[in-house]
Amino acid sequence: xxxxxxxxxxxxxxxxxxxxxxxxxxxxxxxxxxxxxxxxxxxxxxxxxxxxxxxxxxxxxxxxxxxxxxxxxxxxxxxxxxxxxxxxxxxxxxxxxxxxxxxxxxxxxxxxxxxxxxxxxxxxxxxxxxxxxxxxxxxxxxxxxxxxxxxxxxxxxxxxxxxxxxxxxxxxxxxxxxxxxxxxxxxxxxxxxxxxxxxxxxxxxxxxxxxxxxxxxxxxxxxxxxxxxxxxxxxxxxxxxxxxxxxxxxxxxxxxxxxxxxxxxxxxxxxxxxxxxxxxxxxxxxxxxx
Amino acid sequence: xxxxxxxxxxxxxxxxxxxxxxxxxxxxxxxxxxxxxxxxxxxxxxxxxxxxxxxxxxxxxxxxxxxxxxxxxxxxxxxxxxxxxxxxxxxxxxxxxxxxxxxxxxxxxxxxxxxxxxxxxxxxxxxxxxxxxxxxxxxxxxxxxxxxxxxxxxxx
Lengths: 290, 156
Prior knowledge:
Low-confidence stretches of chain B: none
CATH class of the largest domain in chain B: Alpha Beta
Number of strands of chain B: 5
Shape of chain B: globular
Shape of chain A: globular
Structural class of chain B: alpha+beta
CATH superfamily of the largest domain in chain B: Beta-grasp domain
Low-confidence stretches of chain A: none
Largest sheet of chain A: 5 strands, antiparallel
Number of domains of chain B: 2
Oligomer: heterodimer
Radius of gyration of chain A: 19 Å
Strand content of chain A: 15-25%
């Protein structure tokens, strides 16, 4: 077992190509649990912590670009304005110690259905930049997740950055768990209102083999908001619309019974989260957010 | 592999470190620093909390090789020659130490908080220690100790 520690992005890509069996590691908060407790022994670690610049974010006018090694602590601190759902999701991850180490790139690379970044990246229609010695690819978050801990990332690719459209209207993220800290979500939900495009985005976590969107709920709400001219008139949204939206969100889920919850409770919780997320977002929108 | 790092201000080298080892094992077994405690080994309990380049981290979740070149602070570095740190003294005054197993981790977590915010409110203190489990105190006296430390004049 080797500890590979590239000092530049180019060296990291070369090592990734030469050692497809190596496991990339940044904060280690997920990988180390499996190494400490489950005897997981990858052939090699590809340690990205010495590659400069990966923890930074930048403003790209209509978008922000988030470096893969940006920690949850940094996202809470820096991204509340442009990516409020992601910042809120980051705030609820693990504990302060976990947030100081865990990264958005690690969350994507692990691709757990319970990862807290995913619903926010789906709802905001983020794009993931990946690169290998073969070249660079831009992958929509909505196509990235293939199965539990499986993604579009090829064995020779590394996550280079995440492009997120800047928020133009309220966004929410909410999750249910046994306590406020140190929980893996029983269910989570993100909603983003895209005021400039007059459409909404959703993301669901911990309720299917991968993070998923609620497509029928999005189409329903888009149509209701357009038909009633709600975006322009900024009118209160009837309760029945909230309830129908929540019902449709639940239909997108395909949860299981496991150690953390039953499938039935997950469905119930998801409906409540979706209802509340819409109420919170629309209330903020009416208050003249931006 | 050899890992060279700074621990409590002193350069140290740990030899023969295995790739799957974590920083907690390096500190305890190779450098003899047993202040950071080993319990859950999955980042749940916070009893192994140390400062890594200033940030409070679970040493059990840091691959040992990543500590190469890092500045590590452990509970052993808090007290002076014959004098406790202000926060340590406040823990004693408030009765925040019972069995003591969680104390090193709590001191390191609260150290990060007090460096950032010299006078945090109770809510902030409670949120900051959400990743440090204590099975004795019920947390009340730990929070009191943190508030006591926060209200002290600088350097006291």
